[in-house]
Design a protein that fits this description.
two-stranded antiparallel ribbon
Amino acid sequence: MPVNPLSKYLNEVEAAFIKLFSGYIERYEEECLTPERVNLRIRVRFPKGYMLEWNEADNTPHFPGLKTFPNHKHMPDNVIPATRPSVFEVLDEVNQLLRV
């Protein structure tokens, strides 16, 4: 039986979060809506009070003044324009920041 692409993706995401350099998974929720559609909510806590919250279904249309609207990135002191990254790109950036 072939592996469902969504199942494969979710397994890869879970494995990537487990491999994080430091921190712990505080919340990991998969809400399967259809065999092809899922809402994914993950929260990871890191040392020094850092937190990563990933919501795959979050397309909240706020910050319309940004050139990449509705995509954006929340930084400690502001919100900046950003393209929509994959979860794997985000985790690579997190690992790089934590190793500095």
